[in-house]
Fold each of these.
Amino acid sequence: MNSFRKIWKKFWNPILRFPLFQWIIAAIMAALIWFVYFTCRKKIENYETFKKYRHKPAIFAFWHGRSEMLSPIVCLGGMKSYAITSRHKDGRMMAKLQHLFGLRAIYGSSHNGGLSVLRDGVRVLRKGDYSLCISPDGPGGPSLRVQEGALYFAKMTGAPIIPVCFSTNHAWFQKRWDRYLLVLPFSKIKCNVGKPMFIDSKISQADFDAKRQELEDIMVKQLRDLDAEFNLYMVEQDLTSSEFKDAKRQGRAPKLTKRYR
């Protein structure tokens, strides 16, 4: 099995570097997402906040593993937004997928090109009519841990941070560090839009750290409450991409075993 996986990667990875193939794969993924979305029953809590800020400077924060069904919600809601994505080939393909849902891309992360991302994100928010989509535990973890990027954007622009999450009654968790959740067709989807959080431009470092922890607690609770409603597996904190890949190669990657009830 390992030999087959190595051969497959040698064949597949070079192909994924070509933009044409990335667009083809992105189009197929978009079609599948739309199919799932339109076959599901949807409920969006606090949709008024989304409508209020969809054409205003705001930072919509979501966990790295919970992006799939947010794309059609953003598209149908007419939101004007940029999304932060990594420069890796996977990130570039995801940027093409997001583009098909009306999102523009800012390339980089807190680990790679952090200053340019901060500059570009601030520029976008200061335009006054665009929002920003960011996963604060991406692109490589630790999972369900808020990094500081979203808070810096809020501090420098006055834009609010709005946590968003969704869950479903029929889910498939991918074997990845972020436990990426895929919704199965004909499911029930519930999305929660959180309350806006503002960061004062003159905030002290101690209060800034406290706000970071507060945002993390809110986003973790948001995910836990939604998943508990559907009795899904409990997603772990503190998994990283590199550690999970190493453990997977050694046959000891952690498995999801615990449910809420």
Amino acid sequence: MKTLRSPLAQMLVLCALISSSASAAESAKDTWDSLFNGKDLSGWVGVNDTKFDVVEGNLRLVGGMGWLRTEKQYRDFVLEFEWRALVPQYDSGIFIRAGLEGKPWPKDGWQVNLRYDALGGLVKGTRPVVPSETPRLPLNQWVKFRIEVKGKQITLDVDGERAWASDALDAIEGYLGIQAEEKAFDFRNIRIRPLAPAKP
């Protein structure tokens, strides 16, 4: 026996389906991918002379002159992580949309500095683009960075406070990476929420 639904019932079913689809899409949009499992360097590739290890569940930059990059390339994303410097005069950085050419570090892409005298400075190569007036941080203090990249725009939040914003990004996509420059750092809780599909 075939059941006939009234137009009102059909509309209610349709609304429920749309609401369910919207909720699923919103949930997918808020999905984070872990970039570090706390056990090993799965998902990462060392480039040039770079020394990284896993110490007490932290991703430790030991030294060297090179960088550790993700296996995947990313275009638009939100990246969150915590870091702390272990030695004075510390200097490292997070590469954004980096290419593979260049030695010891990529010549294409951008870098968010982790530097004792320019915390959060954004540079392209060696040319400062967004000068940082963020105060210097003491050693062994965990700091949380949130980097959002969308199109040509990039923003940095430090411990929940907006540090700066720029709309000068010109690289379309590339690898994420951690710069090794003969200094020791710890990283933890590294996660990413892609706003565009990652490219293997």
Amino acid sequence: MKKILLLLLILPFVPILQAKPKIVSLTPAVTEIICFLDGESMLTGRSSACDYPARIKKLPAVGDHTGFYLEKLLAMKPDYVIANNFTVKDKRLKKHVRANFIEVPIKTIEDYIKALKIIGRILNCPEKGNKEAEKAFLKLQELRKKAAQQTRKPTAIWIIWHNPLMIAGPGSLPDTVMNLAGLKNAAANVKDEYFKCSREWLALQKPDYIIWTVNGVPFRQKGFWAKYRKDQVISGLNHDILLRPGPRIFDGINQLRDALKK
């Protein structure tokens, strides 16, 4: 009896352990960050484009690039839904799904650094998030310093899609990656971050390098593309590492640097 009374006296002062929040991520880069910060066990849903690490593809897909699947989200009952601007502003979400909706814009490396801090707080590991953000910031500064010290920057055109031709312009993530890898974007004078162009326009630019990251379509040196030497074309690099502002982006930049040396 004394033990029971003692337990009853102690219980009110014992902290209640909070259950891990259930998180749905509809952005591939955010999904990678969650796993990078050891929050993978909290993920209960993903977008169809979230594919890294490979094991998260076992999770149910509750959205794609066009939006989300309302029925699946309702059944999942997540605590947090992390998505881009387009999805978060969809009025059906807040009307039907009871969750905390968080918009995490993540288009640039700077966005990635900010996202580490935001997601660290959501996962209840702010120290880890802040620490990784500081490490990423230092890596970015080091790459900027190295690029600034480079006396000559070869020019490059980054091919995002081949038909019609889609090119990376100024302010885009590929533009940043090129600059940090020691290249100058030959399309730097175009106004748009991504734009369609003709083959005639491309031929007039005469870049030192062509960077080919057309997802699912390997580069073939024939027809129009036969005019570019093999050593001018950088292809075969991991599309997602280079074009996804997440934990692997610095590996992608280093891979591009290494490819330039070959």
